[in-house]
Amino acid sequence: MINGPLLDYLSFLTSIHHEVVPTGSTSSRVIVHVDLDCFYAQVEMISNPELKGKPLGVQQKYLVVTCNYEARELGVKKLMNVRDAKEKCPQLVLVNGEDLTRYREMSYKVTELLEEFSPVVERLGFDENFVDVTDIVEKRLQQLPSDVHSAVTVCGHVYNDQAINLHDILHIRLLVGSQIAAEIREAMCHQLGLTGCAGVASNKLLAKLVSGIFKPNQQTVLLPESCQDLIRSLNHIKEMPGIGYKTAKRLEALGISSIHDLQAFSSTLLIKELGVSVAQRIQKLSFGEDNSPVTPSGPPQSFSEEDSFKKCSSEVEAKKRIAELLGSLLNRVCQDGRKPHTIRLIIRRFSSEKHHSRESRQCPIPSHIIQKLGKGNYDVRTPMVDILMKLFRNMVHVKMPFHLTLLSVCFCNLKALNTAKKGPIDYYLGPSLSTTTHSGKRSFKIKDTHMEDF
DNA sequence: TGGGGTTAT
DNA sequence: ATAACCC
Questions:
Q1: Are A31 and A94 spatial neighbours (Cβ–Cβ below 8 Å)?
Q2: What is the edge-to-edge ordering of all strands in the sheet holding A157-158?
Q3: Which residues of chain A have pLDDT under 50?
Q4: Which residues are registered as beta bridge partners of A60?
Q5: Chain mean position to CA A42
Q6: Which nucleotide is nearest to A362 (CA to C1')?
Q7: Which of A44, A70, A122, A128 is flagged as catalytic?
Q8: pLDDT for A398
Q9: Tell me, what DSSP letter sits at residue A90?
């Protein structure tokens, strides 16, 4: 007889075997990219339905960071100066969006809804998600006899209006992906009241690029034969996700400005200029190739709050601002149910120079403070502000004149609660070891047993 | 350019 | 601790 543990061991060996030996048959994936329409503006219109139908902008400091489609039709653009926006569109209604709380909460509701379709959901910012629906597609196809594949239909647009070949299994899989994308968008609309776009393709890069083809509240599927057309439709390398400001500048210095330039450029020269990692990755991107997995985001790795301003030049003022940032963070962190083990202070100094480089100092949070973190009775704020001010004076020579334009506080190195009293494992390992066994990205949220203190 | 996030070095 | 990337 093969008993439990031995069986486990055999399936462990089998799973290794499966990882090491590629099956070759079906490594093709179906990825959905979900991109909410003007997310902050949508959240504001849900909060206050009187805003619906009016041109609406969401303001942070002197910028309109996003706006609804009514405002866009009147010439308002994302990240437009408030003065320019008002000039273009005097009827523009502005709401302040500096407090991200409601946006963050809605953002996670979206991710959680997507996780009901497949647990493999990767967040990108607050308003985009990738979902790997390969397994769902496979399950649905196994329900169907293959002679009935011809009954599968597409949902939404097909990129390039490319003809569908119902005898091509890759087409069929992507069409089923488009049906799942439609179900996802329908669920977002009915359960959360949100609209958005979706793109369906065989990898993250292509799904993301194709999701933006038909813009508000529509979806598009990319069939493999149109892949080259999609990437050639980009007018400049900077439009390629993964090629940012710095890399684009360095590529331009090499005479590379179009996607085709990058495709044709010598690989060895590119490696010499950018290093093997970046060079190989972006050159593959230029062909539409992207083997990066959809990595489940899980709970956040860090919590931060920041504030920017024209000028902060005294230690007293800095301390006030830091204490306020910390206050908000403490609320967030105790709601999360995990505990941060590291705290970081970030500053931006005023400089006439081109780019806003930031400086930071971090340190471990003393364990006696961590333990008191979930409990309202203890003042954790005063010692934490003291720590932050030490970090501050380590960066800023307060005896000398200084001029800051941003302060930010970040909690990171989050670990699950220490629930030592329960499990038999914990009993043997003791409390300090047991917390590290529970650490890691995919740890489950554990209810804070001290919440009634609040 | 705001107020966030992530991973790699 | 910084630098790059994403929104």
A1: no
A2: A121-124, A128-132, A31-36, A196-201, A219-221, A157-158
A3: 1-25, 421-454
A4: A63
A5: 18
A6: C1
A7: A128
A8: 94
A9: T
Contacts of A281 (CB under 8 A, 6+ apart): A242
| CB A280 within 7 Å, strand B | no
Cβ of A306 near strand B (distance < 7 A): yes
* Alpha-carbon gap, residue A126 to A36, rounded angstroms: 9
**Distance in angstroms: CA A306, C1' C4:** 20
SS3 state at A95: strand
C-alpha A214/C-alpha A449 separation (Å) is 48
pLDDT of residue A419: 55
At residue A353, the pLDDT reads 72
Whether A128 is catalytic is: yes
Residue nearest to nucleotide C7 (CA to C1'): A125
A134-143 and A169-187 are packed helices; what angle lies between their axes, rounded to 10 degrees? 110
Q: What is the pTM of this model?
A: 0.88
How far from A138 is each of A177, A310, A342, A441, CA to CA, in Å? Answer: 10, 55, 43, 28
pLDDT of residue A158: 98
- pLDDT per position as a tens digit, A292-328: 999 999 999 999 999 999 999 999 999 999 999 999 9
Is any atom of nucleic acid chain B found less than 7 Å from the CB of residue A292? Answer: no
Q: Which residue is nearest to nucleotide B7 (CA to C1')?
A: A301
Which nucleotide is the nearest neighbour of A212, by CA and C1'?
C7
Rg of chain A's alpha carbons, rounded to an integer?
Answer: 26
Q: Long-range contacts of range A64-70, CB-CB < 8 Å, 24 or more positions apart?
A: A64/A92, A64/A94, A65/A40, A65/A97, A66/A38, A66/A39, A66/A40, A66/A41, A66/A97, A67/A38, A67/A41, A67/A92, A68/A38, A68/A41, A68/A42, A69/A37, A69/A38, A69/A216
Question: Which of residues 414 to 443 on A have a Cβ less than 7 angstroms from any strand B atom?
Answer: 441
